[in-house]
Amino acid sequence: MSNPKFDPKELKVVGELPGFFPGMPGTPLYDFPVSRKEAYIATMKREPIWQVTTVETSLFTPQFYPDNVARAFVFETNPLPREKFGGKDMFGINWVYVDSAGGSMVRPGSPLLKDANEWKEKLVWPNIDSWDWEGSAKANEAFVNNGTFIMPWIMNGFYERLISFMDFEGAALALIDEDQKDAVKELFERLTDLYIRIVDKFIEYFPSIGGFCVHDDWGSQKAPFFSLATVMEMIVPAMRRLTDHIHSRGLYADLHSCGHIEKLVPAMIEAGWDSWSGMPMNDTQMLYDKYGDKIIIGVIPDQFDPATTSEEEQRAAAAKYVEKFCKPGKPSILNMYGAAVLTPAYREELYKLSRIKYSE
Asked: DSSP state, 307?
């Protein structure tokens, strides 16, 4: 994709996105030289056109996909009222929506599987052909063709899925118990078969999508749930087959994984993920320096208080970000966890300077 030279006329504001949450300010849209989707794909190809932030992608988690309703994570044309959240996921596991937390959880204490070896006899696999793919495609036609990079999410991933079947303690033990490890590996491979079919269905009914995000949390606020060796052995092989398939369809694969898991980035790379944006307890700036040539890192910029920081200082902060994290061939994503710095002045300076740098 060619990268046209920067023209100051691009800074003309031609639209505005509403705030993600009620009360949040809107986000200006400039007179971009290419679509926001094209800009995001260019970053994934490591041929960036400008520094991507929060306007180039759109969540797409339709309500026909049972996990999205169960996990209270529905983003599509038709909003879903909160009282509809929770309920059964695609495997029939019941989730309870906790309004104060803004999310759902499986009530612990009565796991479906006491031992991972039980999965072949106890799991009832979903009939994804019965989901309303066609109806959702019609209802969401405009939603998925809005000029941005659309990423459906595959909720509950691999380890999260195991937790939903076994509760946390059972899942953690199953990863290291010699009597259960082979069963877990087989289960993860079967999950990959299912996820590949889901990927292909999305591509069939929503051909404008650009990639997939898989949700699989790997750690707490303090540390990973498991060692690098464990994730390399137990999770990476099945994940790699999924990302390889996504790539074979010409699309991109993003991992959403919460927790203090910077030690596990080598496993993300081995698993074939194109990008990952870690939570603030991770040193994303260090990770960019160390691994940014192998996986695109969502970098959290240096933070400041917009109320007490002058416009000149905000623009200087944006220039510092461009200098450190806008390297041709080694682009970054500006991490949503650091989006508080995206004031009008910072956003404009970031866009302008990154456009200039990447079009040199």
From this structure: T
What does the domain layout of the chain look like in residue ranges? 1-57+280-360, 64-276
What is the value of pTM for the model shown?
0.96
CB 69 within 8 A of CB 161: no
Residue found under tokens 């590996």 = 185
What pLDDT, in 10s, does the model give residues 106-122? 988 999 999 999 999 99
Which tokens is 314 given? Answer: 């905000």
Reduced to 3 states (helix: H, G, I; strand: E, B; else coil), residue 330 is strand
Rounded to whole angstroms, the Cα distance separating 212 from 234 reads 22
Nearest Cα residue to 226 out of 286, 163, 175, 184: 175
CB atoms within 10 A of CB 12: 11
* Contact between 173 and 165 (Cβ < 8 Å): no
pLDDT tens digit sequence for 268-294: 999 999 999 999 999 999 999 999 999
Q: How many CA atoms lie within 13 A of 36 on its CB side?
A: 21
- Separation in Å, CA 154 to CA 34, 71, 314, 348: 28, 11, 37, 33
For the domain with range 64-276, which CATH number is right: 2.30.42.10, 3.40.50.300, 3.20.20.210, 3.40.50.1820?
3.20.20.210
Read off the amino acid at residue 182.
Answer: D
